[in-house]
Specification:
- The chain is an alpha+beta fold.
- The chain has two domains: about 5-200 and about 375-460, Aminopeptidase; about 205-255 and about 305-370, Alpha-Beta Plaits, CATH 3.30.70.
- The protein is built from 14 helices and 18 strands.
- The strands form five sheets. The protein has a six-stranded mixed sheet, with helices on one face.
- A hairpin with a 7-residue loop joins β1 (about 60-65) and β2.
- The longest helix has 17 residues, at about 40-55.
- It is globular, with a radius of gyration of 23 Å.
């Protein structure tokens, strides 16, 4: 490979992005919601479309892969660079539910461009990542060159439900995925125009809590004042889970958290952007940020656990009547900090909830997202140096080495399965992308820069 070869590949990107945009819009139109059984056919359609995309990109042996009735993964490869390293390119094609569709400015599964951003569910998280991998391959091949290193691609179909069959998948397909480094396009940039290189992710777990008082609903006048209200009982339990600062109030929950050392904490404190963060998260005026104010914002977001009630059932306001409902339920999600044992954390959470159920209500707790550990690394060495060079050249500015408060369960077990290979996390998103929320969007200019960074990285990794 010569400098001229790289220049030709980079020069092909703008033309490649025309088709890439069409491919992304076609994928966004498929509601591949892995959490909804009624969308299983759509998840299959999304996998088929992704396989077609990878085939057209020049990848070989493209196939769908499943294990234990999992949603389909898509695998492809290009392995003709003798003596060069092998890079695994990871993304996922499943998406979150759209939420309240009336709150979207345009239909969630109909891609629309506004002010240089493409709106639609999955536009940023993470169908843009899958298409970016294909576009980088096409740019090399379109320029008449072979990619300078070996490439494997894995596009997952169950990331948005916590990758529950990941261990079984790696056990079955590990030999087909063996690589020297992995590149994941499922993180985010520091801000629009400024690339991020992620070195830390929180873990995740979730449980469903159901409190039952009655066999069936009862008249609130005839029974109220004597029969306990399951919704009120649930509210008491949920309120007990956080303290006055909004931190998790479960005994022992923080005991195994890895505390950042003084150098790292100073680096976190030096990062700017709290006002920008409030704006990106659409925090209303006067609303306080939660967590220990003595800790930097970015430590609270990246290196401390968090708890969120992501769903609650009692009775909808619409159609409600004067009754005490028989039961109430909530889905409680936790993000786990580096160092935390995920099984221990969920066990402590269960124990706390059971101890705080009032009035003797029946309590049922069920796991809904298998707990997975946080991941962090030292962003140093040959692969990280190559990535920084590629990002700097593609975006025209220095990348920010950063953490992300979200979770990608795939990273830690895959890196460990192959001896701790470097994991390079780049992102099509940015803090204003509203991934998992209404009006999710992708900055098209940064997406193009991400593709260029991948094209350059494939060259940098062989140095």
């Amino acid at each position: 490979m010569t400098t001229h070869d790289l220049d030709r590949a980079v020069g092909a990107i703008d033309e490649v992005m025309i088709d890439a945009r069409r491919e992304l819009e076609a994928l966004v139109r498929i509601p591949s919601i892995s959490a909804s059984p009624e969308h299983a056919t759509d998840v299959q359609r999304s996998a088929d479309a992704t396989a077609d995309l990878l085939t057209r990109a020049g990848l070989e042996n493209v196939r769908l892969a499943t294990v234990d009735d999992s949603p389909p993964y898509v695998i492809g490869e290009w392995l003709h660079a003798e003596g060069a390293p092998t890079v695994l390119l990871y993304a996922h094609h499943d998406v979150q539910p759209p939420g309240v569709e009336e709150r979207w400015s345009s239909p969630p599964f109909e891609p629309v461009e506004r002010n240089g951003r493409l709106y639609g569910r999955g536009a940023a998280d993470d169908k843009a990542g899958a298409v970016a991998h294909a576009a980088a391959m096409i740019a090399w091949l379109h320029a008449g060159n072979a990619p300078p290193c070996n490439v494997r691609v894995l596009v997952e179909g169950e990331e948005e439900i916590g990758s529950p069959r990941l261990h079984a998948f790696l056990t079955k397909y590990g030999d087909e995925l063996r690589s020297d480094v992995m590149l994941l396009a499922d993180a985010e940039n520091w801000r629009v125009g400024v690339p991020g290189l992620t070195y830390s992710l929180r873990g995740i777990g979730a449980i469903d809590v159901t409190l039952r008082a009655l066999d069936g609903p009862q008249h609130s006048g005839m029974a109220g004042g004597a029969v306990p209200d399951p919704v009120m009982a649930l509210a008491k339990v949920l309120a007990s889970l956080s303290d006055e600062r909004g931190d998790i109030a479960v005994d022992g929950f923080f005991d195994d958290v890895d505390e950042p050392n003084a150098t790292r904490r100073d680096a976190l404190r030096a990062l700017d952007g709290e006002d920008e963060f409030r704006g990106a998260m659409t925090v209303r005026p006067g609303v306080e940020l939660v967590g220990d104010p003595a800790r930097p914002l970015w430590e609270r977001l990246w290196f401390r656990p968090a708890l969120t009630v992501i769903g609650i059932d009692g009775h909808p306001i619409k159609g409600s009547s004067n009754q005490i409902v028989a039961s109430a339920a909530a889905r409680v999600s936790v993000r786990l900090a580096p160092g935390q044992d995920p099984d221990r954390a969920i066990a402590l959470l269960r124990r706390h909830i059971e101890a705080h159920v009032p009035w003797g209500l029946e309590c049922t707790i069920a796991d809904v997202v298998p707990p997975s550990a946080a991941w962090t690394c030292a962003p140093e060495g040959w692969a990280f140096d190559a990535t920084k060079r590629a990002l700097r050249a593609a975006f025209g500015t220095e990348p920010v080495v950063m953490g992300v408060g979200g979770s990608i369960p795939f990273v830690s077990p895959f890196a460990a399965a192959f001896g701790g290979i470097p994991a390079l996390l780049l992102g099509p998103g940015d803090p204003t992308s509203r991934i998992h929320g209404e009006d999710e969007s992708l900055h098209l200019g940064d997406w193009r820069s991400l593709v260029e960074a991948e094209v350059r990285l494939l060259a940098e990794l062989v140095r």
